[in-house]
Trifunctional enzyme subunit alpha, mitochondrial
Amino acid sequence: MMRLSSARSVLSRVATRAGRGSASLSSTARMATVARFATPTPTSTTIRYQSTAAAAATPTEETTPKATTPTPFVSTAERKYEYFENVELTPEGVAVIRFDCPGKPVNTISFALKDEAKVLWNQEIDSNGAVKAVVFSSAKPNMFIAGADIFDIKSIEDKSQLVPLIEDGLDFFQSMKKKGIPLVCAIDGPALGGGLEWALWCDYRVCSDSKKTKLGLPEVKLGLLPGFGGTQNLHKLVGLQAAMDMMLTGKDIRPKKAKKMGLVDLVVAPQSVESVAIECASQLADGTLKAKIKKKSWMNWAIEDTPMGRNMMWQQIDKMVEKNAGGNYPAPLKIIEAVQYGLQEPKKRYQKERELFAELAATKESEALIGIFDGMTQMKKHSFGKDAAIPVKTVAVMGAGLMGAGIAQVSAEKGLSVLLKDTKMEGVARGQAYMQDNWKKKVSRKRMTQYEYNIHSSNVTPLTDSTASWKRHFGQADLIIEAVFEDLDLKRKIVADVEAVTPDHTIFATNTSAIPISDIAVGAKRPEQIIGMHYFSPVPQMPLLEIIPHDGTSDSTKATALEVGTKQGKTCILVKDVPGFYVNRCLGPFLVEVSALVRDGVDLETLDKSMKKFGMPVGPITLADEVGIDVTSHVASFLSNADLGQRMDGGNIAMMQNMVDKGWLGKKSNKGFYSYDGKKKTINPDVKAYLKDYVQPLDRKLEMEEIQDRMVSRFVNEAAKCLEDDIIENPVVGDIGLVFGTGFAPFRGGPFRYLDQVGVASYVDKMHKFADNYGAQFEPCQLLQDYAATDKKFHS
């Protein structure tokens, strides 16, 4: 009945359901794009987190990042304003105001921009009788306004101070309206968050049909709500159902749909946006054009504008939010509250909106989600120098299985020429079919045009061992990505074969999830050009990429891998070459503790429910089934024999190997911990009977909180140990890695922000108690103990 009934997750896929089996354990918990607000590039940090109390308490002068003072803006006749180009007045009396934020490719709304906009308006527009209409445009190509400047929000410690600042911004928008002249927006590129809210204050909106143009209010993804009138102004244009759908999901709206739903008035070619907007503004001023609000259908009127229909609508929305947010995300509820209050108390609607915004900005959930977004921004940069990376135009992918085909797909979609090679044509054909099926789905869902489908397909060249020209093709490759079986001898042979036919500059990357990169590089002619690129399956959906250099890998190779991964749409983290790297290494102790809890009598459904309640996308039992019991068992066994020592003690991972021997491989065999014969999965009765001999129940029932803490503490402690051992560079990398690689509860911000929120000292005390009760595997690492002793946080 309602458009909202088919809305996407209120978290906009912040943590989605697990995918099917893959080459690495952590690849099932998917993470999607966090809000597309823009933020200044943070100063990179090189602080090392040594496990000594003194170092933890006081960073040295050499390791403390030094802030740079920006050059103050000086107004000149050629450039009167810092955030805007000089105002242009057409002969018809249309003032064109172009956003142009300095020093970056995007425009963002900051408090400084707001203050300057007031000055500009007062000096150039308000008292100028020659101005008959205003067009807001952008001096930057393919860019209107990317959103609010998140740094402004982060910089204010007392979030209640946001209320008067936002009020000042609202006063400016309302003063624009009081001028009584037509306001038109010329949108080419993103109009997101505060950018769309600015456009909503205008009378008419013209946008381009560019692929880069998108409109949306993604604040919910940062645990916030639209604060510059969005919760009150949007539904007047598009209706309550569409407005709630946009605000609760944070989804992007493309130009064609924006026109259809009434969000914009015209869609034109990019090169015509500003000129058409000026023409429309002139016509609005002289009365030859009238701005019209899209008329509601009879059905939408019945749902949105009658007491019975509106009541049913709100009930449906509440159900959707409860189902998708699970009580962990306060922003959706506050968005609903803001809209409902505005409908009931229209004179106070904007006041309520900004008060709710300030409340959300003060929540730990918003802090966590903003931290994730900030971390994503940091991961797009590297410190190896602007020209360190080699140009990459051609990527050769060795192995056309699920992983290889996925890597080929994300490369071809970004315009890279891809050589997809397998031993036989049947393998290559399966890889091509995988990519084409994915692209056909995108075409059917209007997320890709047929032309784009054809271009992507033409970017892939299939090759086999029997292809006479494969060596000649590889002679053009800039980067090789190997995605074959986990066999060291095979990988070394591939390195030798590839080095014999590729140019000297070609980089060799391996997608191994376990074998040390240094071992693969042994005997190579160009070991400095060998690196690990650990993708997570399914590659097109999973956002994380671990970049693993060995000790001899050159900076140029590291920079190239990072830049290619970023081009492929991945969030890349640099990880030390150790068993399990970072993500899988953290999952090892967690898996062992799952087996320990099963032994202690916790039933399988309770284990799943406990971790979902904590905020994970799926529970550990479902995770094992989705990945495959065989894969899960292999990872756990591998890490048990690696260098983690007692941190892999406490459980019995042989339980899973016995299940593998019985053919209970999980979802792929229709039987694992769960049975998948019917429409609804149920606990496998054979596993239930099998576990009776394994279970040694405790003399007391474990409460859900203790179950959660036992699993999560093993996870978090290993993350901290990775930081202590320089496996990851800093807590931001650690948070991003586990949120994007395992689905670690996004509203908690990752393991290190979670520790900050609950308190490192109290968490260390909890782990000591667990160590006393269950064994040394719970002993907190030295870094955690140091931070507890000095009352230090991982994030300032």
The chain has three domains: 84-362, 394-574, 582-727+759-790.
